[in-house]
Specification:
Elements (H helix, E strand, L loop, with lengths): L3 H19 L4 H12 L3 E5 L6 H11 L4 E5 L7 H4 E6 L4 E6 L6 E5 L6 H4 L1 H8 L1 E4 L2 E4 L5 E6 L12 H4 L2 E5 L6 H10 L3 H6 L9 H9 L5 H15 L10 H17 L7 H12 L14 H10 L4
Parallel strand pairs: 1-8, 1-9, 2-5, 5-8
Antiparallel strand pairs: 3-4, 6-7
Length: 311
């Protein structure tokens, strides 16, 4: 009898390959995004407009077989535009809750930092608790539930920096960057890849995803690897390079992400290499300079990893 986990691994390999045909020249970023979803976390993609952030989110929704919803964040967006509102039904003589676009399995919050802080905070309960409250009534969100948010660099006009409490809700933050020459030439020759993303077929389905996530959470983590993760956490706290060190919740997220990365590599045991691979994406947006709100740079994170020895 075939091992269902082997079947899932084959499907995910196909998923990564298909995503790579749509989001060109970004295999590592695609793998990080998939690891984030497999770890059950929310994803933040930060980059300049036109880099493929929305295309990546839409592609992942299609390939994971998830019900998809998109919100374009603007300065005049209200919290109720995200969560939904209660509308009075004259025929029934009572208020009925009209769900907002947040009631989807994968929500794309496009250009999230163009909305006001009050509107941004409307996502907090949804991301943390998997539910929203309206007029004192709690409404459960679909399962699974993921948020992929895109944001423009903070120096752009009309942006509101995400508060630390909201940044911490995202398991990972990634940047796509400019495509390499070959990928850009292919794009210029063939045109937009969005129509291809619209027609790609699901490689997984929402019913099997929770079981797959549960399997990944049980991947073997040795005591020595826990020591290594603790050493990395301590290194972020015992330095003047960062305003605050990583929290225990960030440490748990680092382990979840490392397990997913190891599983995508075909292993049932997590190695230090897996932790190092996901560390910048998990830690970068949680660490900031003591003298500004600037997030930790890739060079600072690489230097920290070099300073911490592997047990």
């Amino acid at each position: 009898m075939q091992n269902p986990n082997h079947d899932h691994a084959a499907r995910l390999a196909d998923l990564l390959e298909e995503a790579g045909r749509i989001v060109l020249g970004k295999p590592r970023e695609i793998r990080l995004a998939c690891a984030c979803l497999l770890a059950g976390g929310h994803l933040l993609i930060e980059d300049l407009p036109g880099m493929g952030k929305t295309t990546l989110a839409h592609t992942l929704a299609r390939l994971f077989g998830l019900q998809f919803s998109r919100i374009q964040f603007t300065s005049d967006l209200l919290p109720g535009d995200i969560t939904g509102v209660s509308i009075f039904d004259r025929a029934a003589q009572q208020f009925r809750f009209q769900p907002g676009p947040v009631f989807a399995q994968l929500l794309l919050a496009d250009e999230i930092n163009r909305a006001s802080p009050k509107t941004q905070s409307a996502l907090l309960e949804a991301m943390e608790e998997g539910q929203v409250s309206c007029d004192g009534v709690t409404h459960a969100l679909p399962e699974p539930f993921f948020v992929i948010a895109t944001q423009n660099p903070a120096h752009q006009i009309g942006t509101y920096p995400l508060p630390e409490s909201q940044l911490d809700r995202f398991l990972m933050r990634i940047e796509l960057g400019y495509p390499d020459r070959a990928a850009e030439r292919h794009l210029l020759t063939t045109g937009s890849v969005r129509p291809v993303a619209d027609t790609c077929l699901a490689k997984l389905d929402p019913k099997t995803l929770p079981a797959l996530q549960a399997h990944i959470r049980k991947l073997t983590v040795s005591a020595a690897l826990i020591d290594y993760v603790q050493a990395l956490l301590a290194a972020t706290r015992d330095t003047a390079h960062f305003r605050h060190g990583l929290s225990p919740r960030a440490g748990l997220g680092l382990l979840h992400a490392a397990r997913a990365w190891a599983w995508l590599a075909g292993r049932d045991m997590v190695l230090p290499d897996d932790v190092q691979a996901v560390f910048p994406a998990v830690a970068g947006h949680r660490l900031s300079s003591p003298h500004s709100s600037r997030s930790a740079s890739p060079a600072e994170l690489a230097a920290l990893i070099q300073r911490v020895s592997i047990p």
